[in-house]
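dumping this here so i dont lose it
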């Protein structure tokens, strides 16, 4: 009889080496980039196998930063995130399908403004390495797209030329460095 020796491995996000971003077109001629300053995640794998991962990610909606205090205030307000009423943006994984040695499709449920929808993201695995202090790190670049209106972010203004002020399509980008937690 074969025994399963795989153990659950817990990982945390190394925030000093990670960034959560989104990109939206402004007037359909330039791209504005935003980040979330406060976020966290619970990540568990079977050993070091990221094909068998459970992810619970949350970002504080009021921590949005687009390098414009006025725009950030608008994004935190009722037209967009309504951070006072819906303080968290959440993602819970449902599957991580290996496409090649370094490419995965990460599926899960994204919740913004109490609207939960399934999404698929591309996850490019950068590998596993030890840092100078003996910590085991893993790196991922994650990307995808959503339609903001699907999540109740329905702010809609058209300029005189007929261009949308803010695109409906929002690109999601994350550079994530994970740190393996020490066994308890």
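and the seq i came up w/
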């Amino acid at each position: 009889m074969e025994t399963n020796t795989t153990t659950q491995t817990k990982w945390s996000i190394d925030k000093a080496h990670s960034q959560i971003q989104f990109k939206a077109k402004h007037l359909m001629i330039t791209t504005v980039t935003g980040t979330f300053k406060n976020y966290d995640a619970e990540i568990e794998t079977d050993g070091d196998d990221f094909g068998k991962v459970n992810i619970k990610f949350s970002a504080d909606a009021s921590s949005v930063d687009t390098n414009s205090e006025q725009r950030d205030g608008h994004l935190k307000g009722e037209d967009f995130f309504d951070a006072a009423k819906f303080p968290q943006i959440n993602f819970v994984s449902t599957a991580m399908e290996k496409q090649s040695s370094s490419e995965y499709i990460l599926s899960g449920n994204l919740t913004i403004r109490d609207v939960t929808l399934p999404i698929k993201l591309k996850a490019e695995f950068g590998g596993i390495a030890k840092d100078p202090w003996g910590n085991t790190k893993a790196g991922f670049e994650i990307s995808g797209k959503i339609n903001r209106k699907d999540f109740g972010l329905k702010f809609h203004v058209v300029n005189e030329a007929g261009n949308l002020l803010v695109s409906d399509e929002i690109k999601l980008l994350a550079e994530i460095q994970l740190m393996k937690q020490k066994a308890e």
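The mean pLDDT is 92.
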